[in-house]
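Objective 1b: paired records.
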Amino acid sequence: MKAEGGAPAWHEAKLDFAKDMSYADYLDLDRLLAAQHPLSPDPNELLFIVQHQVSELWMKLTLHELDGAIVALREDRLPHCFKALARVTRIMEQLVSAWTVLATMTPSEYSGVRPHLANSSGFQSFQYRAIEFRLGNKNAAMLEPHRHDPARLAVVEAALAAPSLYDEAVACLARRGFPIAPDVLGRDLRGRVPEDPTLLAAWTAIYRDPDRHFDLYELGEELVDLEEAFRLWRFRHVTTVERIIGFKRGTGGTAGVSYLRKMLDTVLFPELWRLRTEL
């Protein structure tokens, strides 16, 4: 390909990086691409490793964006919160697609990899657990798989103790004058936001008069979009696991598909779903 005048299209591109930072330098590609260490002779193990590593990178970005959304919501900068939440929802779509790639691994192929995983399992992902806690699905028992590593434990403990995204949404409703029960506002933050009729009444009032409360109405829809994407991610996980290993126990000791199916019943923002029936 040539540019106008007959010169190659890349003729002005910088080609000498002996003294300057290159693309690979900026992204630290040497370390990134050297971080895959298959333990089996099976060539399919590289797919298994890369899929999970890429997912962890997306989860790192998810946590970064959720932190920004939570701070913006706390400071009543709702448009900034909406932007971050929209990005998280798009990231969830990438996480769903990652399972689609892994689903190309057949049960026979995975059988050559599985013995080398020992007890390692996605159940032990500290970033996934921190995402769940930031979204409000808190359970102190889930700290235990990380207790052997102080740095990872600190990340998960901080997410457990801090106000979740839904905590901040509820606090925002209270600041706007909606009568939220004191037991909800003053509860221990290390647990889930309890389902409460005052929350349902507040969200229902917002949805019955969206023009009057449009930014809160949009907040509700952003939360629903996010939860729907999160459910799809979990569902794709379940179907991929069932497709590859059936109903065997997970490598981390869980019941496998049966355990994952129970997780599908978890609702992050129950009032935002129940109000659909109320309207």
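Objective 1b, second protein:
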Amino acid sequence: MTMSDPIADMLTRIRNANTRKHETVDVPASKMKLAIADILVKEGYVEKYDIVDNGKFKDIRITLKYTADKSERIITGLKKISKPGLRIYANKENMPKVLGGLGTAIVSTNVGVLTDKEARQRGVGGEVLCFIW
């Protein structure tokens, strides 16, 4: 059975593992998911990610980030915005800000997957994939 929204599945796996305070979470790999994982590392929401080969398929093993004593989570919220039934697009003028700039919006543009700040700097719009804070 095929999955209708693989990005939502990735975000849900991260959210669930983060809630249970797991060290790592495995997600089936794709180019889009690798780009999102790369943004999560650059923005400091996750520690790192590795590509794990499981024979036929590859997985992305994401190492989640917590405070030093592991009492607080770094990711406090994760929300999917654009869905297969209702795509949400934003141009450069109305690019959303998450929590007044404290969070990050991940946007799929014609120059690649960018954060809302990078999209504003480059002057491009695109599909708003998710919010993370």
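The beta strands are 24-28, 46-54, 57-64, 78-80, 89-90, 104-109, 112-115, 126-132. The chain is about 25% helix and 35% strand.
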